[in-house]
Amino acid sequence: MKVKLTAGALALALVAPAFAHDANAIRADAHAPIGVMGDHVHDRGEWMLSYRFMRMEMAGSLAGEEAISPDDIVTSLANPHPGPMTVRVVPTKMTMDMHMLGAMYAPSDTITLMAMVNHVEKTMDHVTYQGMAGSSRLGEFPASAKGLGDTRLSALFRLFEAGEDRVVAQLGLSLPTGSIDETGRVLSPMNTAPVLTLPYPMQLGSGSFDPFLGLTWTRTTGHWTFGTQASAVMRVHDNDRGYRLGDEGRISAWGGWSPFPSWAFFGRFSARSVGTIDGADPRIAAPVQTANPVNSGGGRVDLSAGVNWVGQQGVLRGQRFAAELSAPVHQDVNGVQMESDWTLTLGWQYALGGR
Ligand SMILES: [Cu+2]
Fold first, then answer.
1. Label partner for 61 (CA 20 to 30 A): which of 48, 108, 300, 305?
2. Where are any strands of DSSP class E within 1-110?
3. Centroid of ligand 1 to alpha carbon of 104 (angstroms)
4. Which domains, ranges and CATH numbers included, belong to the chain?
């Protein structure tokens, strides 16, 4: 034990000065964990291209904070629906894959512009119950939707930078390039297979122009980095199908350890609150919990582990690769909704140009 500690101290003593003196080194911890966006700015004339892949898995359902089985959903009153309709179809599993292509450009040291386009693919498995009541199962079916998601344009402002601290503000607008007209063939309780407009969580966009903003503070000191971000998305108008998604607020805080400039290991905490859908799309009227706007929004706390790596030499210099895995430690949904399991984000970033 004593030998190990001494060896560790020696290794640190060797690494620390090299780290401190290498002014040319690109630091992996200069960017936040890959699940965080809008955390950094660029120097004048610099470009950055990025690609992110995100997979999100959900399974089972919650009523508030408690797990609820499909049988209980279709036989209990836990799922109020306007009108006489009862729930006869329950989602059992959902996968969402997102490919995000981003570009950043800094016309000045103060302002960095950012654009991000997404391709979204959603798959949801369902179980259908027979007839108008009871808990006898008729069968299962999947529904899927894929295509362009909403496009995010924003400006990032270097509000403050001194010594170890940096504060960045983000002001943006999400454009409704994602479809809200996705349809799919479903299995009805009457054993028919109509094509219907898919429920809200299966649509690819919000259908509205949504302003968003963020404020990020980071401190990098020696081998350590700390950051915190507050952000919000506002739904300021109804889309042309007669509803708007709920507003979103989010806070996140992370700490990172960087034993060498190329590597940074992160732990992150994030909490979000999402409002309920306001209004309703008259086409979405299936006897499934996801078709009821009451079953939308809620609160959630996630913990994440992440790693950033950045190349220092040759063609890999400045190329960043990152991964982050998140899982909820607390969920409190409005009404009855699917339960989130985990989210994996992989990313590549490359900055070029500049002074
Ligand atoms: Cu960037």
1. 305
2. 46-63, 66-68, 89-105
3. 6
4. 2-353 (2.40.128.130)
pTM for the whole thing? 0.90
Say if residues 318 and 310 touch (Cβ distance below 8 Å): yes
| pLDDT tens for each residue of 312-336 | 999 999 999 999 999 999 999 999 9
Distance in Å, CA 113 to ligand 1 centroid:
9
Q: Rg of the Cα trace of the chain?
A: 23
Strand ranges, E, within 180-291: 183-185, 195-197, 210-221, 224-233, 243-244, 248-260, 263-274, 278-279
Residues 6 or more apart from 173 whose CB is under 8 A from it?
152, 153, 154, 209, 210, 211, 212
Helices (H), the chain: 2-21, 70-75
Name residues with Cβ closer than 5 Å to ligand 1, which is an ion: 48, 104
pLDDT in tens, 240-264: 999 999 999 999 999 999 999 999 9
